[in-house]
């Protein structure tokens, strides 16, 4: 079935190239321009499929005519897809943790032991930790900044203890007092950022249980997350040093 195309615009005068068109049904944008055929140029490009072609267009064409406010449907992804992102990312997986409690933690035996004042008895051979060690051995970075209330909640104290386990598996974890995070205007949402390219926002119900994961690929949202990451990472304190500031044994 042929596409229904709408002419968007051109800044090339009368020769008709380069030009932008919009698919009236899907909203996709078609770009008309001169083909890239130089093999040395093509070898510098990433993940070019056999059925893909490349064209060159002036930057001004995109500035003048590319749609600026496309409506994006919320993309909720399956848990299996979210889990796979920890295996498929190439460089960095970075987390901002903003919650005062996580129901999933409270359902664990390690949490119950911690609350009773016992050693949580972390299982360092848990598959999740094994995968972290394997990733770290490949040069991948797992990093977190955790926002902590003053005084910390029970759930936050548990995570301060839990961080020792994660750090042994290769993560780098830092913490920040909530009042400092508010001064920096860090986001309140809880999310993972993969390779500075895509976000996975964790969505919680009224009982602090994470029940959905939203995938964000909008470059504007991802850029804001990268800026928040840089500010949080710069101002946060490494876990061991932060624990020394907390007025009780964690």
How would you describe the overall organization of this protein?
The protein is α+β, with helices and mostly antiparallel strands and 250 residues long. The chain has helices spanning 39-42, 59-65, 79-88, 103-106, 109-115, 127-137, 154-168, 178-183, 219-235, 239-243; strands at residues 5-10, 19-23, 29-32, 34-35, 55-56, 75-76, 92-97, 141-148, 171-177, 190-194, 198-204, 210-216, 237-238. It has an 8-stranded mixed sheet with strand order 6-12-11-10-7-8-9-13, sandwiched between helices. Strands 1-2-3 form a 3-stranded antiparallel sheet. A two-stranded antiparallel sheet has the order 4-5. The protein is elongated and about 70 Å long. The model has no long low-confidence stretch (mean pLDDT 91).
Which residues form runs of ≥5 with pLDDT under 50? Answer: none
Mean pLDDT: 91
Largest sheet: 8 strands, mixed
* Order of secondary-structure elements: EEEEHEHEHEHHHEHEHEEEHEH
Question: How many β strands by DSSP?
Answer: 13
What is the 3D form?
elongated
* Spatial ordering of strands, largest sheet: 6-12-11-10-7-8-9-13
Task: Please outline the helices and strands.
Blueprint: E1 5-10, E2 19-23, E3 29-32, E4 34-35, H1 39-42, E5 55-56, H2 59-65, E6 75-76, H3 79-88, E7 92-97, H4 103-106, H5 109-115, H6 127-137, E8 141-148, H7 154-168, E9 171-177, H8 178-183, E10 190-194, E11 198-204, E12 210-216, H9 219-235, E13 237-238, H10 239-243
Parallel strand pairs: 7-8, 8-9
Antiparallel strand pairs: 1-2, 2-3, 4-5, 6-12, 7-10, 9-13, 10-11, 11-12
